[in-house]
Target: D-alanyl-D-alanine carboxypeptidase/D-alanyl-D-alanine-endopeptidase
Amino acid sequence: MSRSLPRLGAVITGRRLPSITAPRALVVAVAVGLAISGAGFVGPPDHLPTAAARVSDPALASKIASVMKDSRITKGRTSAVVYDAATGSELYQRSGGRASIPASNTKIVTAAAALHTLGPGYRFRTEVISRAAVSGGTLDGRLYLKGYGDPTSRSGDYAALAQRVRAAGIRTVTGKLVVDATYFDSVRYNPTWKTGYADDYYAAPISALTLAPNTDYDSGTVIIRYRAGSVGKKAKITTTPAAAAASLDLRNLTTTGKKGSSTTFSASRIHGSDTITLRGRVGAGRSGSRLITVNRPDLYAAAVFRAELKKAGVTVRGGTTVLVTPTSGRRVLGTDYSMPLSQLLVPFMKLSNNMHAEALTKAMGAKRSGAPGTWAKGLAATRAYLSATGVPFTGLVLTDGSGLTRSNTITPRAMGTLLVKVQRETWFAAFKASLPVAGNSNRMVGGTLRRRMNGTRAADNAWAKTGTLTGVTALSGYVRGRDGRLYVFSMLSQYSGASPRPVEDKLVVALAGWRR
Model:
């Protein structure tokens, strides 16, 4: 997969304010503009009452009840609510107070809490630091690379930092390259995640210093590229970024098959292991790639940074070590910044990026309770926001920020209440624009809803977050009816037979076509 939204970065030295290059800023603005104007975006209401006014629409409730008579609902475990977005009045509920696994609907909660706790202008950063004196182009000591959790860092950003080292007059570093990821704790894999998918791209370890190999910003992963070698010999293996290979233990157990033979290539990594094992056959003339997680994102990022330093003409004589950067005598040679949170929400929410959710969760914890950022601290910040917003806590359990875990539970009533209340926030426009838009084929607008509800009244008219785990489906968001009324809906399902997902679409389409 590839995402069209570029990363907005800036490198500064000393105490100068960060600058944004016009072309990169323009492309990001266009991408975010598409997410807004392309979706027929409607901003927050001019007025929301402090107390919900009662709105009754029994005909609508009856219509929704008929939709819910579907056997995929009656044979499963589905909870749902519908609210009038302007008043907060409950128009329909089916077990609305029953807790259910939200899957990636958890990201709605995380995004709102992050916008409140960190602010829409929040930027992750990565610093390169020196402490020793520079004489004759030689830094007589260590060079420090300190991360603050940026899940959108790419090779080009480390290249820019390497150029700042060169611009500081440094040609040789006599000491080691120090990797500092202590802004987050050392628990990189959430304890409630299954270890069986630890090598899958959507479950990468979370580190304060990491790297994404693609424009999807899948941080903590590397692209393994393979192509056929001589028949009977091993397939040829490369990585993207190329420098990543220096930090990885790649075990190539592949073979090259005859012309016309099938390709059975696989790549796997056991939880906690640095070894990536490559198996299977690659047919003659064939090639391909696989995205896989790394065990130590900090060392992965360091390997890429070292390679970029070498390209910039900077030699580091020492090896790489993991330490805490001293607070005294620091000189920041360069800082790389991510795009602001208001823009980062687009790839995060549209494409349901788990690593973004977890980085934001730990960043909230670090800001609210001090470094290191942890899941416990970050989730406490999330709960604090929900409490202040008046979201009911009945049945609420949060153990991660992305919804990859099956331990999270929330009620549709809590989710719906949050979606009503966030309309009052100054950042609501950015929040709503980040939600996938039904039936919009533009990947950075439609996101995970781009192939759903196409050709219906809900297309380009419903903004909602999807959620999927085995036996779990969820959909929560906003849709505007034919009479102009904006509805909030939340539908959470657990099932063992046929998926209720088509009924989610029927619910939203029914609301989109409703006229009082």
Observations:
- Residues 1-53 have pLDDT under 50 and may be disordered.
